[in-house]
Amino acid sequence: MDIEKIAIITPLFNEEKNILNFIQCLVDQKNKNFHVYFIDDGSTDSTVSLLNQNLKSNIFSYTIISQKNQGAAQARLNAIKIVKEEYCLIIDCDDSISNDMINNIINVIKHSKVDTIVFDVMMQDKSGKYEALPCFDESRNIYNGFECLENSIGGWKISGFMCTKKNIFLKSYDLYHTLNTKKENFLNNDEIISRLNFLHSEKVIKINSIYYYQYNPNSTTKKINQKMHYIINNAIILHKLLNKHPIQNKIDKELFSTLWGIKKYISKNNKQIQEKQEWVCSGFVAQTYL
Fold first, then answer.
1. Is 143 left (phi over 0), alpha (psi -120 to 50) or beta?
2. Which of 42, 148, 164, 224 could crosslink 69 through cysteines, CB 3.0-4.6 Å?
3. pTM of the model
4. Which InterPro entries match (predicted)?
5. What is the pLDDT of residue 173?
6. Is 220 domain-assigned?
7. DSSP string of 179-215?
8. Tens digits of residue pLDDT in 48-100
């Protein structure tokens, strides 16, 4: 397994408006010791043709993978399974990273036995302004995985964007799929995987590089989504997977918060929501765990 490079995994679905900026973000990296796995998740626009037109092998190494639409979480997993590198960094195409990100990650990997590396995160709101994601403890940069898991529940107080060992990603997906047996897209599967990565990590190091999370009004979690209630499934799965760990109160609150959020979502978008009975049934199922 290649420890001199890291794998960058980027799912793509109709990203023609973002792909050129994303390529430039990678070109701007001070350290080019990475291999990018672009996973086209059944795009129907010019994403792939723009990739082929604008990528040159001498800029950075890359692989383009095409698949039928399966959702971003499954696209990530399909790429993780084939990467040759030990560490995987997932970056969404509409986001960006500071130009020292790869260099700082590789420096940490070379000098530390680490399972997961996290970063500073700047969150963009709908007005275009950025706000820093708070970290639960800024006085240090080395944590254990469980305290990171604990502080990812009830509001993210640690970055869910991460560079993690391939074997940890696979272990997390395997555990998740014991309950999501059909590997369905419940919209925020990636958040569950990030938390399970923390669960399976002994040592987590935070670096000063920045992940820029861009506000995307077309995101499935931003626009009115007829499947938004699917996130209740992931709240239940997380509750089942973690209920034997000493954070019972937190995961109870997380499940309740998800239910309350969906209730408010229904109230706000009542006229546009179809299949309301399905939404209500999902809520009743979740309440049995509280």
1. beta
2. 42
3. 0.93
4. Glyco_trans_2-like, Nucleotide-diphossugar_trans
5. 98
6. no
7. TSTT----S-HHHHHHHHHHHT-SEEEEEEEEEEE--
8. 999 999 997 778 999 999 999 988 889 999 999 999 999 999 999 999 999 99
Residue with the two structure tokens 């696209």 = 75
DSSP code string of 252-285: HHHHHHHHHHHHHHHHHTTTT---HHHHHHHHHH
Query: Is 24 domain-assigned?
Result: yes
**Tokens encoding 167:** 């074997």
Residues 239, 248: Cα–Cα separation, whole Å = 8
Q: Cα–Cα distances in Å, from 212 out to 20, 44, 245, 260?
A: 16, 26, 32, 28
Count: domains in the chain: 2
State which residues form the domain around 266: 229-288
Please give, one letter per residue, the 3-state secondary structure of 106-169.
HHHHHHCCCCEEEEEEEEECCCCCEEECCCCCCCCCEEEHHHHHHCCCCCCCCCCCEEEEHHHH
Which of 213, 248, 275 represents a domain boundary (last residue)?
213
Residue 138 resides in a domain: yes
User: Mean pLDDT for each consecutive 10-residue tract of the chain (290 residues)?
Assistant: 86 97 97 98 97 87 94 92 98 98 98 98 96 98 99 97 99 98 94 98 99 82 77 96 94 93 86 74 59
Pair of tokens at residue 207: 């670096």
Write down the pLDDT at residue 269. 86
